[in-house]
Sequence to fold (100 residues):
Amino acid sequence: MTNEKESMEQPEIIKVIGEQGEEIFMKLQEIVTLNNQDYALLSIVEDDKLPADDEEADEIIIMKMKKTEDECTFEIIESDEEFNMVAQAITDDEEENQDE
Fold:
C-alpha cells in the first residue's frame, strides 16, 4: 500500500455541483494518493473565498477524485472498507508527523 500526500502552499477553493444541481464551494485541503487512487480532503466554505479565520475547525469530507484531461470530478466513497482504509492512512500519517 502506498500513501502519498500532496502538500499545498495555499488551499484552493473549488466549485462543485451537488446532487440537486446546486453550486457548493469547497476548500481543497490536500490530496492523498493511496494505491494509485487520488482522494481529496475537502471542507465546505460559505462562498468562493477562503474564510478570514482559517484556524477554526473544519469538517473534513473525503472524496474520491477522477481526473480526465480537461476536468476533475469528485465521487462519494461508497464502500465502508475503502473509506476506512483512506481515513486510517490519513490518521497514521498525521500521527507520524506529530512524532517528528
Observations:
- The chain has one domain: 3-99.
